[in-house]
Amino acid sequence: MASGVSVAAEVVTALQDLKIRHKYKYVIYHIAGGEVRNQALDSMSSDDKNNEYNTEYQKQRHQGFVDELKGGEDANTCRYAVYDFSILDQKEGDTAARKTNKILFIVWCPDTASVKDKMLYASSKDAVKKALGSGITEVQATDLSELSFDYFWEKAQSK
Amino acid sequence: MSEYLQTTVFPALPRTQRATAFNLGGDPKGKNFLYCFGQSIIIRDIENPAISDVYTQHVAKTTVAKYAPSGFYIASADEHGKVRIWDTVNKEHILKNEFQPIGGPIKDIVWSPDSKRIAICGEGKEKFAHCFLWDTGSSVGELMGISKVANSIDYRPTRPFRIIAGGDDSTTIFYEGPPFKFKMSLAEHTRFVNCVRFSPDGERFVSVGADGKGFIYDGKTADLIAELGGGGSNAHGGGIYGCSWSPDSTQLITCSGDKTVKLWDMGQNSMVSEFKMGTAIEDQQLSCLWQGDYLLSVSLNGYINYLDRSNPTTPIRIAKGHNQPISSMAVTEDKSTIYTADNSGRITHWDTATGEHDVISGKGHSNKVLGMGVHGGNLITSSMDDSVRYTSVPGNEYGPDAITMDSTPLGVGVGKDGVSVAACINEVVVLRNGRKVFSLPVNYEATAAGVHPNQTQVMVGGKDKKLYVYNLAGDTLVECKTIQLKGAVTAFAFSPDGRYLSCAQTSRHITTLDASAGYVDVQGTDAWMQNAMVTCVAWNPSSTHLASGSLDTNIVIWDLAKPYNRFEMKGAHPISQIVGLEWLTDNKLISVGTDNAIRQWDIKY
Question: Which CATH number fits domain A6-158: 3.50.50.60, 3.40.20.10, 3.30.1490.110, 3.90.25.10?
Fold first, then answer.
């Protein structure tokens, strides 16, 4: 909001569908025409549902997400995303891992993006996050290592 | 056996803030209405505003209170985000439940029509609105999509249920449920949305905002029906702060910063009448409520206007009083009238028995009134604007002139025949009938003054913890005696028989001296002290008991016959200091606190 960018209603609707109806695995947002809008919606397939806590499967699935978020090989664009990330959470002292899902809010601002773009996404981040409501874990990513499956896993673990 | 019982209370006016909308709460039974002041919730009878009740169990500044549609409970909220749900029926207002749905100020509360759910909105850290069951606190859906402070929330009174919330992101969000889910956001307004309200039949809802516009939507689908007033021009010339539907859903009132309230016919979508409330900034209308046959709107200066539909130019009645903390109080000798003055310099007079009141009009003090006294038709006030005023009473207008002092008159002592003594920072001034007649420069800072009932001596308290006694010879002061005290004097009280002088002090002590025996300590009164600075003292008419009030919120009544007895009225003004005390009879006490409640007590000892 500080940047004058507003949040389109479809952004909130998409998150609601992802969070409550489990319709999407992830949703990617971008800023277009002075508004935060949906860029890509990735629907949950039946395969996804069957393999929700299959780490190998999820890693593959994650690669698809990263490729889509990055855009092309040389695309240096910033993006927001919300991601229904499933993990097996095992805290110290737990006998068995708990199957949990975390909604991650990813702010993807690659180092190679233009300064103008980075500024715009950083200053609009708050407005988006507030519109999305509570119970969402923020992940800031500026290079590929911060988009890795393990990095997300670490962020999604309860403290 | 010592007992006390509060008999009546004259309450404060709603707290207002310029250009900030707030909400009045209506009673489903049509009897009372609710508003907030300080940490209290005020329940006021709509037909006779002199009848009221004050709920004081919030620990932070209260922001909004609403009755449940069943009428049995009130939900009230404060700036810390706490919601308290309490019983309306019994006098103790038993707490039923307390929740903290968000971590910041709550702006609005609404109950579901079945009195089971509560929706709130405000300024939280992560969320701005929340809906929950009042008995368990479990949430009913998630109210997403708001990105700035939400000012107003409403719950559709008929099935299928909907929630609307509007706020500073200039959108109104529409939720379907329960459990409530984001459905759409309505972006017709260009500035803050201040108030959103469903019609009582649920068919439509209206949103009004700081852009001076109102929009009418379908209550079930949120389709835009029309702009309020047709859309040719803005509904109001200033920001609209509130709106309220008539009980039959055919009409609506809106109140605005353009100092008007407008009545609209919602069938024709046209204005029926315009209530012009004045031209000054303080006439801006910040909230309105339509309850039964009553149309209320609140001005920036806190006045509650009862609008007259048949005569839009003059309100039927205006409930006045104070919405700044009261700083001093005085009662006439015949005990018929109470005068109270506040931090803004406004002075109100109240009828002791009926609560009838009005504000003294005309150009008066422009700053906090520090001391006041009334005697023989003169109301004498000293103020931080460095002046002392004589106002003739009974009369409702200020006297023509202010007597300007060279330094701030911190206190004023009032005697007979129009004599008064002002204790200024570097002088003591004697006044007679509105004229300065003598000035004595002093090398201490005078904090309070008193005149002995037989008019021969004048007491002045100094910041140097001393009491200075002067002989009043004609109009001049001759120094007579200096007495060492324990703290600076904040107030003096002579017993009506003239024998005893009590000095309230910053050091928590109340020193009582025998004036007939050369100002020696009265035996046994050395234990007279409270838990914090004592701000006021008063002797009862038969000179047997002294009442003292303090910063510690308590009033203590001391018995001269049994000086070691301590009869304490704990939390007489909960969470607010006592600023004034006066006896009406030997068994009736009046107290005023910074909670702006003027309470009358029956005392048995």
Answer: 3.40.20.10
